[in-house]
Every structure is written in C-alpha cells, then in structure tokens.
Amino acid sequence: MQRIQQHQFIDLAKKRSPASTEPATFDRRKFLTLATGLAAATGMSQTAFARNFGPDAPPERYPDPDILVLDKRFKAKLGNTPIQRLYTGTLWAEGPAWNGASRYLLWSDIPNDEILRWNEEDSHVGRRFRYPSGNTNGNTFDYQGRQISCQHGTRKVVRYEYTGKTTVLADKFDGKEFNAPNDVVVHPNDGSIWFTDPGYGSLMEYEGNRLPQSASSVSPLQKEAVYRIDGQNGTVTKVADQPFKPNGLCFSHDYRRMFVADTGVSHYPDAKSIIWVYDIDGATLKNPKTFASMELNGKTGFADGIRCDEEGNVWAGMGWVGDGYDGVHVFSPDGVRIGQIRLPEICSNVCFGGSKRNRLFMTASQSLYAIYVETRGAHIS
Asked: CB neighbours of 337 closer than 8 A, spacing ≥ 6?
C-alpha cells in the first residue's frame, strides 16, 4: 500500500529487534484498497508533525504537540510528559494487556506468530514470550491473573493456566467453528468472558490460515458476532450480531454498557465505520445504537481496539487515513470526540497500565508507544 507519510520519521534506535523490519505485503484485501484511497486524500503538508521517536532524539518541547485537546472535557492531557516509543520491529502489533501483579505488558505480533513482553522495572522487551502463539490477536487477563487470548490461527479463545497447560475456552458455536476470534474482555462480577469474531485471520495467510471458503465469503464459517462465555459453566452464547465485523470491545466504566468497534467497511459496502454501544442486561446485550462515527474532517478511518477510562471516556486505536488522523481518538461518554494522540503509524489497540493504571500503551503497526495521562483505566487490562 502506498501511503502518504507526513511524519518525517527517523528511527535512531540502537537496540534493534532481530526480527526483520523490511516492509511486508499487508494483504487485507478490500481493507487495503479502501485505506489507500483514504491515505491519498489526506492532502496535508509533507513536513507536518516531523518528529524523531528514536532514543537519541532531542527532547520534545512540552507540551507534546501531538496530544490534542478538542474539547474542554478532555482533561487527561499532561503538559509535561511526552509520547514515547518503547519498541519497534513488529510486523503487525495488536492486543496489549497489562498484568498488574507482575508489572508487565503483553502484546501480539500476529504475522510473526509471537507474543512479546515489556517489563516496567527496566523497559526490557522479551521476544517470543509465547511462540508459536496461534497467531494470537487480542489478549487480556482474568481476575485470577491468567492470560486469555484470541487465536486467529486455531480459531479459538484460550486460557493459560498456572500449571503451564492451555485450556480451550471456546472453539465452536452452534456446532460451527468460529471465523477467527479477535478481542476479549472479562467481567469482574461473574468472571464471564466476552469476545468478538470478525474473522480476519481466516481470510489471509498473513494473520492466520486462509480458509477455502474465504474465496466466496468474508464470513467463511458463520455470521460475524459478539459472544459471551459463562464464567461458571463455560456455556457460549451469542449476544450481538448487528456489527458487520465486530472488532475491539470494552465495558463502560460502570459495566452498564458495552462498546463494540465495527470495521465492516473493510469488506461490506453497506457497513458504516462506527463504534456501537449496547446496554448490558445480565448475560445479554440490548438496545444497539451508534455511539460515535469515525469520520473526522471529511475523512473516515477505522476504530480497532477500544478501552474506557474511569470517567467513562472511550479511547480508540485509529488508523488507515494518514497523519493528522492515525493514532488514538478519545470520545466522551456521549460520543463526542474530545481529544487525539497523533502517531506516525496506524494504531491498532490501546491498553491502560503501569503501577497506577495511568499510562496508555498503544500498539501501532510496527511499534509499541506509551504516554502518561491524567486519568486511569476503568478496568484491570
């Protein structure tokens, strides 16, 4: 994909991952075709936001110019902290999840079939924390500290146990395998596990295993949907299928609502690039409606991973437009865009972490970024 690059990005990192950093062909089919057109439409100055994120870069003058306050309700911006790049070298980074007990962040590199780990105490990055990972996409931790992952390659949701064994939590619904589970969250009250199944990992070899059915259907095994795994008996139920391709999901800060990012415009002409919101009624979702549109200044990209802060604001990883759009968009509880964090790469997912849960981690294509904010994540991961 040819993409206009306004950030004159200079990488001065001395510590390089042994993984290849050569450009890879990203075959998301119609997703890329649409993204190319969006990128070409940005029309911004080639010198806009020129920035060096390498470790030897000169200090960025405060306040950081790529943290934008669009509405006075966005109070999370700190005037004396920068956007930091913690790592680079992945092919397509996804699924950040914070482990508060052990003070580390996990995230996935789907094409390289591995999960990496960043340690808070010394910023050390360990490759292949899990390898092979089943082309894992989304990760989280339950309230017993166990890692839960959505595997593209195996089309399963799994949990890693204290014994070292792996438990399959869900691999089928209504007698059919899932398309390719994507993102996952855990409810603290009943231990239920909620996940999405948009199916991208079964449409290409790059992020999983392309199924023969994908030649004729972009939902090769069953309708894309949101599911719930009962925390007591493991029963899997479908809770929503209104989104064309449900991608990232998160609970509201008070667990009364659920937000679901819809990236169906990648494959469906009738889809809209929006975040849905549902009312949570016990084990079901009700009253689906549009929470926010991803259009900004006449350009529309995609919201991927989403997380909620303690004030009820929704933080969304955004991309596929270009500079001035790609990064993180922050929406107030009523769906108004109130803030932005501009990044030089497409941002897939976000996660609050750090010892005080006041640090936002951002997986962005080939890199991991972080920034301190004056709020905290509403949930543990």
From this structure: 70, 71, 292, 296, 329, 330, 331
What pairing do the DSSP bridges indicate for beta strands 359-364 and 367-372? antiparallel
pLDDT of residue 9: 37
For the chain, which residues make up each domain, given as ranges? 31-42+57-372
CA distance 106 to 114: 10
pLDDT for the residue numbered 53: 86
d(CA 138, CA 133): 11
Q: Are 194 and 239 a contacting pair, CB within 8 Å?
A: yes
Q: Where are the alpha helices (DSSP H) in the chain?
A: 30-40
pLDDT of residue 52: 80
Distance CA 226, CA 249 (A): 9
| Dihedral sign (CA 144, 150, 153, 156) | positive
Q: Please state which CATH class domain 31-42+57-372 belongs to.
A: mainly beta
Report helix, strand and coil shares of the chain as percent, to nearest 5.
5, 40, 55
Strand order from edge to edge, sheet including 246-251 = 246-251, 257-262, 274-281, 284-293
Is residue 145 a contact partner of residue 152, using CB atoms and an 8 Å limit?
Answer: no
3-state secondary structure of 214: helix
What is the structure's pLDDT at 51? 78
Closest CA to 248 of 96, 35, 87, 67: 96
E-state strands within 255-298:
257-262, 274-281, 284-293, 295-296
Q: How confident is the model at residue 19 (pLDDT cuts 50, 70, 90)?
A: very low
Q: What's the pTM value of the predicted model, to 2 decimals?
A: 0.88
Predicted pLDDT of residue 271: 97
Number of Cα atoms under 13 Å in the Cβ half of residue 80: 0
- Contact, 193 vs 184, CB < 8 A? yes
Give the confidence band of 30 by pLDDT, cuts at 50, 70, 90: low
Characterize 211-226 residue by residue with b for buried, 16 or more Cβ atoms within 10 angstroms of its Cβ, and e for exposed: beebeeebbbbbebbb
